[in-house]
Specification:
139 residues; alpha+beta; four-stranded antiparallel beta sheet; two-stranded antiparallel ribbon; disordered N terminus; binds iron/sulfur cluster
C-alpha cells in the first residue's frame, strides 16, 4: 500500500477504553530493500528516535513515525468533526485494529537498528556497506 496507514481514533462502539492507540503513529509504505544501499538507508532511519520499521502480512515494508496526533485529548479526538478522511475510514476491510484482535498488523517489527541487523544476518543477507574510497566498513 502506498498511502498512509496510520490508524485513527473514532468513537464507535469498541473504541471506548482504548488509549487512542491508532492515533499515535504514522506509517508510510517504503520499497522493499534489495541492495546494500537500501539496507543502509533503513539502518539510517532506525538510528533516529521514535522511528520504527515493520513488515506487514503482505510482505510490504513500512516506515513508522511513533508520534502522537496533536488532536488527542484524554484518549479521544479533540477535533472529531474535522478529523481527516483516513481517520474516518479506519479500520478498512484490509486493516487490523490491534486493540480488537490478538493478531499483530505486522510479521516483523524493528524498533532499533540492531533488530534490523540481526534480522538481515539471520537471513544471510550481506548488508554491510563498504566505503568505495577506503574499503572500510562504515558500521
Ligand atoms: S486502536 Fe482500535 S479501538 Fe483504539 S481507537 Fe483505534 S480503532 Fe478504536
Ligand atoms: S485527528 Fe482525531 S481521529 Fe485523527 S489521528 Fe488525530 S486524534 Fe485521531
Amino acid at each position: 500500500m502506498n498511502s498512509n496507514k496510520s490508524g485513527k481514533l473514532n468513537k464507535v462502539e469498541g473504541c471506548s477504553g482504548c488509549d487512542a492507540h491508532c492515533c499515535r503513529h504514522v506509517a508510510l509504505a517504503i520499497d522493499k530493500p534489495s541492495c546494500k544501499r537500501d539496507y543502509d538507508q533503513l539502518r539510517w532511519y532506525l538510528l533516529h528516535k521514535n522511528i520504527w520499521i515493520s513488515i506487514d502480512h503482505e510482505g510490504d515494508w513500512l516506515l513508522e513515525f511513533r508520534t502522537d496526533c496533536i488532536n488527542i485529548e484524554e484518549n479521544h479526538c479533540g477535533d472529531y468533526p474535522n478529523r481527516p478522511r483516513i481517520c474516518r475510514e479506519y479500520p478498512s476491510a484490509d486493516q487490523i485494529c490491534e486493540r480488537r484482535t490478538e493478531l499483530k498488523s505486522y510479521t516483523h517489527l524493528f524498533t532499533n537498528v540492531r533488530e534490523l541487523e540481526d534480522y538481515l544476518d539471520d537471513k544471510g543477507i550481506d548488508w554491510r556497506w563498504k566505503s568505495a574510497e577506503s574499503g572500510r566498513l562504515l558500521n
